């Protein structure tokens, strides 16, 4: 990023922030859609049943924990690949 002038750095930063926000909103939307489809079945009332509410809580918790675990594993694998590359090894082998 040092090769960019200040204006280009600001533009790059703004693009990265927009991408991060878009990715967050996509993930949020996917969780809402998935949990809604899995948990909501009774449309006779505007309120959630206790079963639906419990299902939603478990579903969202599971989705968030899965995302955290995937990110952690990705970081671990990335660190392993970087270490292998630094030792003269080839990533992916």
TrEMBL record:
One of its GO terms (molecular function) is metal ion binding. The keyword Cell membrane does not apply. It is found in: Mitochondrion inner membrane. Keywords: Chaperone, Disulfide bond, Membrane, Metal-binding, Mitochondrion, Mitochondrion inner membrane, Protein transport, Translocation, Transport, Zinc. GO terms for cellular component: mitochondrial inner membrane. It is a peripheral membrane protein. GO terms for biological process: protein transport. Gene3D superfamilies: Mitochondrial import inner membrane translocase subunit tim13 like domains. It comes from the Eukaryota. Residues 14-76 form the Tim10-like domain. Pfam families: zf-Tim10_DDP. Mitochondrial intermembrane chaperone that participates in the import and insertion of some multi-pass transmembrane proteins into the mitochondrial inner membrane. Also required for the transfer of beta-barrel precursors from the TOM complex to the sorting and assembly machinery (SAM complex) of the outer membrane. Acts as a chaperone-like protein that protects the hydrophobic precursors from aggregation and guide them through the mitochondrial intermembrane space. Belongs to the small Tim family. The twin CX3C motif contains 4 conserved Cys residues that form 2 disulfide bonds in the mitochondrial intermembrane space. Heterohexamer. This is Mitochondrial import inner membrane translocase subunit.
